[in-house]
């Protein structure tokens, strides 16, 4: 089993994700360079957080045109696991692998803080080790995390149980205050219909050690690892 | 021709001009004059501060690089070094807050990775005018977004710092940025231009007309036309710099370059002449080869441009292609524009002609050094006296008022705009006494803090300097870190005014005394003079950045109370000192009096004792007493505790209750300890000759303080939390 972390120009959580996989979860992990056309036979592709191409245009929009993204798209269509975190989620939306788009946070400020998410669907490759309704404490750090989609799309993703994580308070209640960035349906994590592509705004790689204030993010990586084993 | 008017416009005196003529044996041309105006500016030459800075202790067994390089370097063990520095970006941030602050971040980060270190932390010390004025609010919003915009994008966490408000900063805000990186001890890079014939490469962004005269601007007072200087402020591109970081670190990992220098203030001029001067060599460059963003730029404009995100590299002769390949991988220009030469001259060609031919020694080393006149300020007489004032009727209300004052209030509104968790090292979130960053694959952590109270320095500069060092070190002691190195940013008014020079001299003396007493070296820093607008100077504002090491990160201690029923213990002694307190300012609108005094030996004893109790796991929490005094510090221990644990305590000292609650007497720390460890702690205190007083217990949901058996403070923790937490968001009307 091997993980691949893609480096785009401007990625800044590439090393963090690599560190978590390699040092904490003891997985074979390799970096993938955006200009190449080689996925190096990995079993799971991770698009890390950051500001790809400075995010000077819409977040993630230019990275979606990187050469390697052709391979990533084909890999996803063949059923390979693709996991986008933060900027990675934005790139997956721009690639069209996930439906919807990201708007600027409702209060128009960058937000870096620990928040809580509730596991809505624990039948996915990325969440099967969690209990449904489980609350995870994980940090966010983004400017454009306000998820938006048309009412038809929202209906569709709800019908298909594509919402994997929702922003909630510490007790699991959904409310305006807990939905820090103003996302439609409090969506924090979304999976494609086929169930092999997940995007989420919070950073599980920053919540995988006691020292960093939470280990709740581990369950996501552990789900992927168990699935691939 | 160079005439008097041109010389003045270049901020040089006639005497300085004559010295230039004498040094180079002829009149300089306009480009050459521009070069001297930059390198002999106060900002680049330290001509007024040099003789005083010599007092600072700069050596120590862990010092690998002291002042004079891009950044200081301290050995942190395990084959690693910490590379760190603080710098000001005050003037640009007043004129154009977003870009001023953003390029400040870009500049300080370049100083760090130029030396081969990957930047892992940013902190910033900010000073604004009161937020009751709309302009101050908009400056603060711009500065905070600028820091966030640059730091978040480049992926270096902003993990801490401090913010103070005072009217003296209304027209001269301070933006001091600190960065720290980690490098391998045997892979440090310097600004060297060695090896005659080695190629000089220009890498990074293209050169434009932005930022011409930035360093000169930073070396003069502002007047009402300062707004017009907006074009002098550079524009930052964090994405470009992120590519530069990665490309430079990749190049440095191979044995293919000789030296590297960033182009910060004074751009091409500074980097070429400094690299040459450092190695006793010369450099020749051809401006026609410099990547340019605009057409028709003159040699003057190119040499003086402060376009951001550029570096100069001296490569090994046969490795140019390899260097270029790496930069091209990161989509960056890397162009050979010249070579290292013999003879110590800076030669610049443009359209086939030599347009600059100067001895680098004259540019870098022979700038006049001034021993400027200094005079005890006349304001001290009247301002250090406090007229009698009444005690408040309701201390609980006073405590709430202080908790919601901008200087004391919770700053989450600010720091949640900064990515402070990227790079997965942040062990303490902002708001603790010091920021704590673990070192990967080791038990150790680095603790970082910035500190400096300018009112203390205004009314007793020497004490202000001492306290800035002492308090920063106390912050470190509270988390369990030993201080290992200091960097300082000294923000003052116009040094040509004798009263300002006196403030400077005294502050430096205070810093020197404290650093010597604590045995910590100063490894560099920055002096920012001319912080005056329309003749009004800021308070003398030293900002001290101190780096400490925690040997075992799992033992580090945070300020919040941990559990109900723990004993609360005061280390140190209460004294009746209300001068220069936040209390006087906030409640009586008085910025007067003599600041609290400090005995450095006693301070050191308290800090060492605190460290010892942490290493022996005798305490659960520790918090320094500073602005707002004992009651604020105690309240913060509640507010910073995850469960918001209250307390009930009794103070016995025979003195004015307001002095006891809000006085800012130094050398005090509040700790909490599990009951079974209290006896051990008190015995140890006795042995170490430290005064330790049990004040009471944590618990409940109220903040309660008795004085001489009378309840003088009683507030629900929730109410205190609300006052403290919502003050700043309320001002900005966003939550």
Characterization of the model:
Helix content of chain A is 22%, strand content 26%. Chain A has helices spanning 14-24, 68-77, 87-95, 151-159, 218-228, and strands at 2-7, 28-33, 44-47, 81-85, 101-103, 111-119, 135-142, 146-148, 163-168, 187-191, 197-200. In chain A, helix 1 (14-24) links the parallel strand 1 and strand 2. Chain A is globular. Chain B contains 26 helices and 28 strands. The longest helix of chain B is centred in the first third of the chain and has 21 residues, at 134-154. The radius of gyration of chain B is 26 Å and the shape is globular. The relative contact order of chain B is 0.12. At the A-B interface, helix 1 and strand 6 of A face helix 8 and helix 10 of B.
Defining traits:
heterodimer; A: 229 residues; alpha/beta; Rossmann fold; two-stranded antiparallel ribbon; 5 helices; 22% helix; B: 735 residues; alpha+beta; 7-stranded mixed beta sheet; 36% helix
Show the helix and strand layout:
The complex is a heterodimer of chains A (229) and B (735).
Chain A (H helix, E strand, L loop, with lengths): L1 E6 L6 H11 L3 E6 L10 E4 L20 H10 L3 E5 L1 H9 L5 E3 L7 E9 L15 E8 L3 E3 L2 H9 L3 E6 L18 E5 L5 E4 L17 H11 L1
Parallel strand pairs in A: 1-2, 1-3, 3-4, 4-11
Antiparallel strand pairs in A: 5-8, 6-7, 6-9, 9-10, 10-11
Chain B lengths: L3 H6 L4 H11 L5 H10 L2 H4 L4 H4 L9 E3 L6 E6 L2 E9 L1 H6 L1 H17 L4 E11 L5 H21 L3 E8 L8 E11 L14 E6 L9 H4 L20 H15 L4 E6 L4 H13 L2 E5 L12 H6 L5 E6 L4 H10 L3 E9 L3 E6 L2 E7 H5 L14 H5 L11 H9 L8 H4 L10 E3 L6 E4 L6 E7 L2 H6 L1 H19 L2 E10 L6 H21 L3 E7 L3 E2 L2 E2 L3 E10 L16 E5 L10 H7 L11 H16 L5 E4 L4 H11 L7 E5 L5 H6 L6 E5 L1 H13 L4 E7 L3 E6 L2 E7 H16 L3
Parallel strand pairs in B: 4-5, 9-12, 17-18, 24-27
Antiparallel strand pairs in B: 1-2, 2-3, 3-6, 4-6, 7-10, 7-11, 8-10, 9-11, 12-13, 14-15, 15-16, 16-21, 17-21, 19-20, 22-25, 22-26, 23-25, 24-26, 27-28
Helix pairs in contact in B: 7-8, 7-10, 8-10, 10-13, 16-26, 19-20, 19-22
